[in-house]
Amino acid sequence: MRHLRASSVVQLSCENEVINKPSYQGYPSRISLKNGIGLVCLLLLASYFVSVTLNPMYKMRGLDSAVQEPLSQLNASVKPPSLNFMDGKNVVLVSHELSLSGGPLLLMELGSILRRSGAHVFWVTGNKKETTSDPTVVSLEKKLLNHGLQIMPARGMRTVTALTSSDLVILNTAVAGKWIDAILKGEVKKVLAKTLWWIHEMRGHYFSMEYVRHLPEVAGVMIDSHATAEYWRTRTRDRLRFALGVSLDTTRIIMPKIHVVHLGNSQQLMLAAEDAVGRALMRQRVRRMFEIRDTDVVFSMINSVSRGKGQDLFLRSFVEGVNMVNKINMVQQTVFTVHALLVGSDWAAPSYESTLRRFVKENDLERTVHFVNKSLDVVPYLAASDVLVQNAQGRGECFGRITIEAMAFQLPILGTAAGGTLEIVVNGSTGRLHPVGKEGVHLLAQNIRDLTFDKSLRVKMGMRGYARVKQKFMEHHMCERLGPVLQTVLTQTA
Ligand SMILES: *[C@@H]1O[C@H](CO)[C@@H](O)[C@H](O)[C@H]1NC(C)=O
Ligand SMILES: *[C@@H]1O[C@H](CO)[C@@H](O)[C@H](O)[C@H]1NC(C)=O
Ligand SMILES: *[C@@H]1O[C@H](CO)[C@@H](O)[C@H](O)[C@H]1NC(C)=O
């Protein structure tokens, strides 16, 4: 029964992902059963595939709607101790959409954590049509139900009652501000007074009045990094003054209290990262797909493909770095190739993406630069990589979840000295930082060269990064940071 379920997960995942997960059905045929060793391998592989495919993390990011999530896998026994006070509280989570993008997935994880703490958790999707048959929405709703959350309609009395009678409302992302009036109707003020607004964005266009109008009225704002918090603190104030026509030196708009809560890695990601056998298998499999040898060095960027994430500048650094490597190689006669994996392509920015592909072609990099479609599951790519590049431009990442995920996989980080990355990466210790913009291209190229040749440096940085994650960026750390924030909002409204 477990096996049947495992293979059905595999098939479902394959339809939606570039990477075919190791297939439980496919592998045994390739394994020699001539002797006892073969059998042991087979058993090891079988138990690995069952654990991988049943691992809830793969489901969080996968569209396996037909699969029941076994509740035991959620490890309900692990109650976050720092959130004990949430036991029995009613919490409504409001998301602007239900999709596989970062914001909604983070809120789903938070919902699951709160549920494990004993809270009654309700979910409202602002933009949802009542009769939707969108498979993503359907499968994610199923997951919410499996995690013990209750789904409320986007509009109507039931939802308004849930909101007004709740102990706490968590409004997710700046964009959700657009839906407040429509969802709450006449109860806006009352509900905002017990709302914690969780913001993950740091771009100019989120300062539209349409979104931020109600910001000063909420009980608190929670933001993923100090850099982003600082930005919102100043920008929003200016924006509101400007929009309300208030001159700078008269009325001061009082902002709600802003709490910075760094994210943490889920238990499931840590399980995958710490499973050496599983990692090795995924690494082999992904590398084989792209004809990357064991001795080759892989630099990965795992971000949606857009100018803000800086894939174009990374490719320029990559060309320069590889040229330096080749020059040294001609002297030293070492044999390996440097590869780049760009995970996250979805043609959402077609002209930008075409430019990138043209650049690759013109520079004759088609065999070493690999574009991978946006994936629901980044774990196999992390397992296949040697270095993660976080090249977000402008103000950088708000936080950059992938950075701490890669550190859990003991990857050194080459990141831009901006935004949340500065709060995660210790320059020179867990990775190296370079400036944003064109100024950073040459330094990143040098860092690519250095890490290509110095495996022991990669390993050392990776291990320090892993230690840093264990020390600061685990789910339980996030819960410890979250506890006082939720308590503050609850006391304020009690
Ligand atoms: C679930 O929690 C128990 C108790 O803390 C632990 O021993 C076990 O390893 C956990 N299992 C998973 C899958 O996380
Ligand atoms: C990647 O996505 C594009 C467009 O969304 C699609 O045409 C293509 O077939 C996908 N590639 C793979 C390997 O799935
Ligand atoms: C990172 O460290 C290098 C080497 O010590 C230094 O040159 C660079 O300025 C540092 N960058 C930042 C952003 O601290």
UniProtKB/TrEMBL annotation:
InterPro entries: Glyco_trans_1 (IPR001296), Glyco_trans_4_5 (IPR041693). The chain crosses the membrane at residues 36-54. Residues 285-466 form the Glycosyl transferase family domain. GO terms for molecular function: glycosyltransferase activity. Keywords: Glycosyltransferase, Membrane, Transferase, Transmembrane, Transmembrane helix. Signal peptide: none annotated. This is Glycosyl transferase family 1 domain-containing protein. It comes from Ceratodon purpureus.
